TrEMBL record:
The lineage of its organism: Bacteria, Bacillati, Actinomycetota, Actinomycetes, Kitasatosporales. It comes from the Bacteria. One of its GO terms (cellular component) is cytosol. It comes from Streptomyces pratensis (strain ATCC 33331 / IAF-45CD). GO terms for molecular function: phosphoglycolate phosphatase activity. GO terms for biological process: DNA repair. This is Phosphatase. PANTHER family: PHOSPHOGLYCOLATE PHOSPHATASE.
Amino acid sequence: MATPGKHRTHLVWDWNGTLLDDIHAVLGATNAAFAEVDLAPLTLEQYRATYCVPIPKFYERLLGRLPTPAEWERMDDLFHRHYTEQRAACGLTEGVEELLVRWLRGGRSQSLLSMYGHEHLIPVVRGYGIEGHFVRVDGRTGPSGGSKALHMERHFEVLGDIAPESAVVIGDAVDDAVAAAHVGARAVLYTGGSHSRSSLEAAGVPVVDTLAEAVALAELMAD
């Protein structure tokens, strides 16, 4: 594992839609799941305009009502089954490996926090050959579909002497900004994932079109 930097900006990376370029797999899995429950498919633009967390609220926007617990469980299971099939074809977002290495060479630390299930996340990240760039890799524990805020809180608890005030969260979802604010960290949001630019801009944090821009901003924000 990488060695933490001292009194320098720490990055907390999101995984799906940020480091992993999987938005088309997410959309494909969503539409495959929708087909099994008689919901109309979404275009990428429709998905980005509609998606929100907690995810049952996303389904409420499509159904006109909150799904029942049984409906939510079925849709969640269907999505993850189809996503697992499609994720294997996904690559890292362009330039990710260079950005991770360059950040470490600058004497800074970084970690990864995802709402992808922890037991699935670890072997997937390892398979892309980048696990060693992070001081810690944490995925979701407990039920899916909720917010990242409490997971972010626990992430910093186990990071030890890395203070949220010296950290920048880089993610593709409004919930990444919410989770960052929950612990007192900064955030930069990336347009390559689950949300439209207008949805991200409503979060009130910087919004960028490339991860290189996100890292450049992070260097200025918290050092």
